[in-house]
Amino acid sequence: MAEQSSPAKQNRLDYLDNLRSFALLLGLAFHVAIVYAAIIIYPLRNNDRSIAFDVFGEWVHLFRMPMFFVLSGYFTERIYLSKTLKEFLKLRALRIILPLIPGIILFAPMQYYVNALQEGYQGNYFKFLWEEFLLKNPAPSHLWFILYLALYTFLYLGVRPVVFRIGKFILPSSRYGEEGSENRSSVKWETLLIAGIWCTIWTCGINYFFLKDEKYLNIEPVQFIYDFSFFLFGSFLIGKESTILKGKTDRSEIILLGFLSFIFFGLFYWVSTIDPYWSYFGYTGFGMRILHIFLKCLGGWIWIAFFIRLFQLFFNKTNKLSSYLRESSLPVYLIHHPISLGVGFLVVSTSLSIWIKFSLHIFFVYAVTFLVYHFVIRDSNFWLTVLGNKGISFKRNK
């Protein structure tokens, strides 16, 4: 905690805050796109569907939430080292646990209500909310990641003494610390490979015992451990930021990372058509499933590194727009899902072409959600508290 030895105080990495906002706001586009996907199953589906939206959905899914959990793990460890246990738990409660319960009640039920309507349910929304959702099966819907983060916080406190030593073992400071990584460019690539192998081991281990879609108390073990492996590795990067999170970068490195990112995504997508992830471990052979998960994990890490370098080079500034997006990203993401389903329910019932429907759908989701945030939430202490932004300082230019 605060009394422990910790890395020297660092300047705020604005581009990481901007990147975290990007990851959250990209979720709006993801939830719109999968309405029109041919393969991805979603409660609301357009009759005319295109594989292009499946490709987009798989691409976003490969890196978006892993990147979010890497940054969450990194900032969790930074907060842990700089605060007392009481301060740490208070900050985590305000940011993560507080918005979870009202979020599940207010913003999660719409997904299940739309699904129930399509299966012939005749009751109104409030009847469904009480009788079918709250009394029978309250579930987090798109807020699953907040549930996971809340659980990770407590799990991390328990396992930190062990994983801290593991992190020091697989990323020794003598080679991967600030001086070592700055002087050897190969260290960056080594770190990506180590990260990919680390996540592959954990994901293969859990997938051997559980199917991808198995769920217990709203927790999917495979997804839970997969994301937790990214979270833990993010915590390993304290004092080793120059390996992935910062350091010298240039356009040639970004171009190379971008090229590798597309190569790995293409390989991952191809293998996923041969070895469907929903199947049991070894369905098409143990080697194929291990390769599948390795491409998924390492491909995700390469995309993460690409976006970090991209934002470091081009979006490393704080201005009115970036401050506004950082301030709004979490509330906007929390409230967008019922808006997206409501708009989508109206749009898919029209006879317009799939691309016009998608364009209208995504435009109105972003527009309506930001309008609600700007005029209802932004200056409301109540809503900012409920949505996890209370007590978080954002400078505004009056």
UniProtKB/TrEMBL annotation:
Keywords from the named record: Acyltransferase, Membrane, Transferase, Transmembrane, Transmembrane helix
Entry-linked Pfam families: Acyl_transf_3
GO molecular function, one term: acyltransferase activity, transferring groups other than amino-acyl groups
Keyword Secreted in annotation: no
The Acyltransferase domain, residue ranges: 14-372
Stretches that traverse the bilayer: 21-42, 62-81, 93-114, 142-159, 192-211, 223-242, 254-271, 291-311, 332-352, 358-377
Full protein name: Acyltransferase
Source taxonomy: Bacteria, Pseudomonadati, Spirochaetota, Spirochaetia, Leptospirales
